[in-house]
Specification:
Pathway: Lipid metabolism; butanoate metabolism. Residues 108-285 form the 3-hydroxyacyl-CoA dehydrogenase NAD binding domain. Residues 14-87, 288-381 form the 3-hydroxyacyl-CoA dehydrogenase C-terminal domain. Pfam families: 3HCDH, 3HCDH_N. By secondary structure, the protein is an alpha/beta fold. It folds into two domains: 4-91 and 290-377, Orthogonal Bundle (N-(1-d-carboxylethyl)-l-norvaline Dehydrogenase, domain 2), CATH 1.10.1040; 107-284, NAD(P)-binding Rossmann-like Domain (Rossmann fold), CATH 3.40.50.720. Helix content is 48%, strand content 11%. The protein has helices spanning 10-28, 33-44, 50-57, 59-68, 75-82, 115-126, 138-157, 163-172, 196-209, 225-230, 263-275, 291-307, 313-322, 330-337, 339-353, 362-369; strands spanning 4-5, 8-9, 107-111, 130-134, 173-176, 187-190, 215-218, 238-243, 252-257, 279-284. The chain has an eight-stranded mixed beta sheet, with helices on both faces. Helix 6 (115-126) links the parallel strand 3 (107-111) and strand 4 (130-134). Helix 1 crosses helix 13 and helix 12 packs across helix 15. The longest helix is centred in the middle third of the chain and has 20 residues, at 138-157. The radius of gyration is 22 Å and the shape is globular. 49% of the residues are buried.
């Protein structure tokens, strides 16, 4: 079926709202336009960031399309038009040089045993960093090691990794059940569940165990880095490192710094990201950083369109992928992330910013309450239980 809103295909409306929100973020001066585009391109697998997309379309045409779709343009866009500007300009300029020199750590620790923790541990070990992974219990620790080993075996089988490199990586990785084993690490990354209390507990323990000057990083994407730092007596040593899943593959790392994070700490996090073959993008500490701040309102907007009967799940997914070049549609992405995780992130964004665009709608809340969490539960927006018949 053809889905329309304001006489314009729903996918076009969804895209325009996403582009407009990016212009608002740029106007706020949170990060430079080049960083915004890099983060969205690498973090979401897009061919171009939103500002570059608007440049390609042309500012005048973007404003025409927004008028037709009843999207109120960001003040920055109308101001640029009044100034006779045609777009945002070049967002591909080289990254700024580091203000503080830093070298990658010789040893690192990971606290956690889930998918993200194992993925980061794998990346560290492959790139020559001696790594200790601390899990809650011997069974979880063994499972994390098996996960890394299986991933490395798959990489060798696909010709992406030499067998000798695999063996060397395995030799650099060990698992433990005691956080005390991180005492001598130069750099420790917390990758436990995305909840404030467990993260603060980890940082309190790291403050007790880790040597002076060790960098303590959190992988949070929606909680406060400053809150983690407050659980320690060394806020200058605490920084955010938001890796993207799968951590060994995805190129972006958002490096979130608080007002108390020392420049040497931020530089060390950026140096480690580069050593792992990643692209670090620095940003001030706040919920969602860059990618989630733009991505989740876009996903929530898509859900709202379906709730209002303005679009269908399959049609909107197909349009965003086939017409607008997104790697996958919004509902396929929600199923992949997990509807419970998406709901939690939206709630945190709404709590911090009060933005109506981040208020979760009843459809998402209902699906989570029903246990339909996406791929991991076998049911979400697309995946159906056998008794429910055809997919949405």
């Amino acid at each position: 079926m053809t889905v329309q809103e304001h006489g314009i295909a729903a996918g076009h409306v969804l895209l325009l709202r996403y582009l407009n929100r990016a212009a608002v973020l740029c106007e706020q001066g949170y990060v430079p336009g080049s960083a915004l585009d890099t983060a969205m391109r690498l973090g979401c697998g897009l061919a171009a960031g939103p500002l570059s997309v608007m440049d390609a379309i042309g500012l005048g045409r973007v404003l025409e399309l927004m008028a037709g779709a009843a999207v109120t343009p960001a003040p920055l866009l109308t101001a640029m038009a009044r100034q006779g500007r045609l777009g945002f300009g070049d967002h591909a300029r080289p990254d700024e040089p580091e203000p503080v020199a830093a070298v990658p750590p010789a040893s690192a620790g990971i606290v956690g045993s889930g998918t993200m923790a194992a993925g980061i541990a794998q990346a560290l070990a492959v790139h020559g960093v001696h790594t200790t992974l601390v899990a809650r219990g011997a069974e979880r620790a063994a499972a994390a090691l098996r996960s890394v080993s299986a991933a490395l075996d798959k990489a060798v089988a696909r010709g992406r990794l030499e067998p000798a490199t695999r063996e060397a990586a395995i030799g650099r990785l060990r698992a433990s059940v005691s956080i005390d084993d991180l005492a001598d690490c130069d750099f420790v990354i917390e990758a436990v569940v995305e909840e404030e209390d467990p993260k603060r507990a980890v940082f309190a323990a790291l403050d007790r165990v880790c040597r002076p000057g060790a960098v303590l990083a959190t992988t949070t994407s929606s909680l406060s880095v400053a809150d983690c730092a407050a659980a320690t007596g060394r806020p200058a040593d605490v920084v955010g490192m938001h890796f993207f899943n799968p951590a060994p593959v995805m190129k972006l790392v958002e490096v979130g710094h608080t007002p108390h994070t020392a420049p040497r700490t931020t530089a060390a996090a950026r140096a480690l990201a580069r050593h792992l073959g990643k692209v670090p993008v620095s940003c001030p500490d706040r919920s969602g950083f860059i990618v989630n701040y733009l991505l989740f309102p876009y996903l929530n907007d898509a859900i709202g369109m379906v709730e209002r009967g303005q679009a269908g799940v399959a049609e909107l997914d197909r349009e965003m992928h086939e017409v607008h070049g997104f790697p996958i549609g919004p509902f396929a992405l929600l199923d992949t992330i997990g509807l419970d995780v998406s709901l939690a992130i939206l709630r945190r964004l709404h709590q911090q910013f009060g933005d109506p665009a981040t208020r979760p709608g009843p459809m998402l809340t209902r699906l989570v309450a029903e246990g339909r969490l996406g791929r991991k539960s076998g049911a979400g927006f697309h995946v159906q239980r056998p008794s429910e018949g055809a997919s949405r």
